[in-house]
Design goal:
157 residues, globular, ASHA1/2-like_C, START-like_dom_sf, Polyketide cyclase
């Protein structure tokens, strides 16, 4: 388990009242991911979701039914089915360096008596990047999408 460094990293976690496999499936199924990945009322479109090391992770967003714009272009670094996803926007799919990446995310799922402990860590290369991410609304944004994920998986659909 990665240790969060207050100087460089940010974290959100939540107990989701659903089994871990349901949370995992909401992460790796493009149709389900699109439902919770971006804070509403923004709309998400999953362009690529190749959940394997080196696989591409590309999403777009639309506001007020406008045209879709880039949201995230990243590369999966590590995937352990049902337990962990690590991706970074410092690389794009196929291990290609990205122009302006600044974060590596570690998503971990573990069993909890009430369901699943969901932990999302955002690792940055500098304190300035961490501060920028926090000022951009990290806690509201990532906290909102975790709440949306919980809503999707806690109600059986």
């Amino acid at each position: 388990m990665q240790t969060v460094t207050a100087e460089l990293d940010l974290e959100v976690s939540r107990i989701i009242k659903a089994p871990r496999d349901r949370v995992w499936n909401a992460w790796v199924d493009p149709e389900r991911l699109a439902k919770w990945w971006i804070p509403h009322p923004l709309i998400c479109r999953v362009v690529s979701l190749d959940v394997r090391p080196g696989g591409a992770f590309v999403t777009e967003m639309s506001e007020n039914d406008g045209p879709f714009a880039p949201h995230l272009s990243a590369c999966f670094l590590d995937v352990l089915a049902g337990e962990r996803i690590i991706y970074t926007n410092a690389l794009t799919g196929g291990w290609r360096p990205a122009a302006n990446g600044f974060v590596t995310a570690i998503i971990t799922l573990s069993d909890h008596p009430d369901g699943t402990h969901y932990r999302a860590q955002a690792l940055h290369k500098s304190h300035a990047d961490r501060e920028k991410h926090e000022e951009l609304g990290f806690h509201d944004g990532w906290g909102t999408v975790v709440a949306q994920l919980a809503e999707c998986v806690e109600t059986k659909t």
